[in-house]
Amino acid sequence: MINPVSCIGCGICVPRCPREAIDLKNCTEAQLMAQIRGVCEGEKAPKIIAFLEKEIAYGSADLAGQSRASYSPNVEIIAVPSTGRIGLKHLLQAFAYGADGVILLEEHGGVFTEEALREHVTQLKKELGAYGIESLRLISFTTTLPEYNKVLDTFETLATRLSKMGPLSKEKRLKIQEKLAPP
Questions:
Q1: Residue 104 DSSP class
Q2: Cα angle: 152, vertex 154, 155; to 5 degrees
Q3: Three-state DSSP class for 79?
Q4: Containing H/E element for 143?
Q5: What is the pLDDT along the chain (183 residues), one digit of tens a residue?
Q6: Which of 39, 100, 132, 156 has its CA 20 to 30 A from that of 165?
Q7: Could you tell me which of 106, 55, 49 has the C-alpha nearest to residue 74?
Q8: What are residue 101's DSSP bridge partners?
């Protein structure tokens, strides 16, 4: 049971609810799915979606821009309260409609700890494997505000890796789309 008085708005409970009975104000399922579909459009390849924790991780990426540093144009950023807000269905939506890779970037020392992030991503990689999606297409890490070079390096690392791996096949995308379709 979630106590609304204790809620800090991180969204970690949302993908973990077995009945999908929880939604998060200002980051609802409908809003998040629309953002994922929206950033999947376009011709850039390989397409990378980076889910960034909205305070520190997003601020670190923003600091890179303020420092006039650039990153791969293949990366599309979506700010979320915590990367714990992202579950399997969000990743499947991304891969089904155009993403070739996904990054989860969390605040170091935040509410969604480094250990929790590691466990979360390990589980997501196992679940993605059942859909034929290679574990190397999903990476995660934590950052502090001044570590924007780490953010940029990770964006570049995944872009380079995906260029070598190639895009996700149309067959895999269609198979995922079929499984996502309502009965």
A1: E
A2: 65
A3: strand
A4: strand 138-143
A5: 666 777 776 777 777 777 777 776 777 888 888 999 999 987 778 999 999 999 999 999 999 888 888 888 899 999 999 999 999 999 999 999 999 999 999 999 888 899 999 999 999 999 999 999 999 999 999 999 999 999 999 999 999 999 999 999 999 999 999 988 876
A6: 39
A7: 49
A8: 48
SS3 of residue 17 by DSSP: coil
Asked whether 113 and 62 are in contact (CB, 8 A), the reply is no
Give the separation between CA 133 and CA 161, rounded to whole angstroms: 14
Give yes or no for a contact between 78 and 51, defined as CB atoms under 8 angstroms apart: yes
Is the entire prediction scored with pTM above 0.85? yes
Distance CA 83, CA 158 (A): 18
Tell me which amino acid residue 87 is: G
| Alpha helices by DSSP H, the chain | 13-16, 29-40, 56-66, 88-96, 114-129, 148-165, 170-180
**Exposure of 116 by Cβ count < 10 A (0-12 exposed, 13-18 middle, 19+ buried)?**
middle
Sequence letter at residue 146: P
| Tokens encoding 99 | 């993403």
Tokens of 121: 């991503």
